[in-house]
Amino acid sequence: MSISVPNPTTFDAAGFATQALSSPAALAAVLDHTLLKPDATRSQVLSICEEAATHKFACAMVNPYWTATAAAALKGTGVPVGVVIGFPLGATLTASKKEEAARVVALGAHDVDMVLNIGLLKSSEFDAVKQDIHTVAEVVHAHGAILKVILETCLLSFEEKMRASELAIEAGADFIKTSTGFSTGGATVDDIQLMRGVAGNRSGVKASGGIRSLADAQAMLYAGATRIGASASVRIVNELANPSDVAAVPAAGY
């Protein structure tokens, strides 16, 4: 089940959120089911792919090494493979990001989540930041895939978040995204609202990092998110479907 983003002059976050929360299937369609731990095993990757296929999540998000494994596991399910690149620091060479992007899309990735070069942004080298993203966007789009750019908002000032959002969109990002989940903080409602304010209808906004419950997901959707990255995706969908059946224990973080 797909979720269509409304296209008025001002993005209708409440309308989108209401639609996404209308059923477990609608909610699953905006959740990137994620496994990015460095110690993730083959069996764990196959398990999240099975879960993604069962619930029809937006994608199964894995580290680059597991791209082909996930693509084979998800073949014929209609669920795409998502892969991170330049992860989690964003400080790799642009040429390396370009090569990594080319390789993962060739292996079957459809969603490519790259980390913005945070140090360049903080050095006010904005043209270089934009070129870094644009180089990857060209490769990704040439293969019919989509690009999400991770800003790592917990490391940025208000002004840097705004600048980073604009640069990423101008450079060709299909989504701007809050966090890797590996830094000092994750998604916040304030950051999603800020990013949606910059994006308007020009791009999607992905909330990621620390989203562990249905309440977390609801807050991000009503703030303007159109995609959510979480390792707790199954728990979140089950909480909507059967709130009384969800165990009162913390879910694993992103």
Number of helices: 11
Q: What is the CA-based Rg, rounded?
A: 17 Å
Instruction: State the strand order across the main sheet.
Output: 1-2-3-4-5-6-7-8
Helix percentage: 40-55%
How would you spell out the order of helices and strands? HHEHEHEHEHHEHEHEHEH
SSE class: alpha/beta
DSSP summary, beta strand count = 8
Global geometry: globular
Cα distance spanning the termini: 23 Å
Overall pLDDT: 94
| Major sheet description | 8 strands, parallel, barrel
Account of the 3D structure:
With 254 residues, this protein is an alpha/beta fold. 45% of the residues lie in helices and 15% in strands. Strands 1-2-3-4-5-6-7-8 form an 8-stranded parallel beta barrel, surrounded by 7 helices. Helix 5 links the parallel strand 3 and strand 4 (109-115). The longest helix has 17 residues, at 126-142.
Task: Put the structure in a nutshell.
The protein has 11 helices and 8 strands.
Give the topology, please.
Blueprint: H1 13-20, H2 24-28, E1 31-34, H3 42-55, E2 59-62, H4 67-74, E3 81-85, H5 94-106, E4 109-115, H6 118-122, H7 126-142, E5 146-150, H8 158-171, E6 175-177, H9 189-199, E7 204-208, H10 214-223, E8 227-230, H11 233-241
Parallel strand pairs: 1-2, 1-8, 2-3, 3-4, 4-5, 5-6, 6-7, 7-8
Helix pairs in contact: 1-10, 3-4, 5-7, 7-8, 8-9
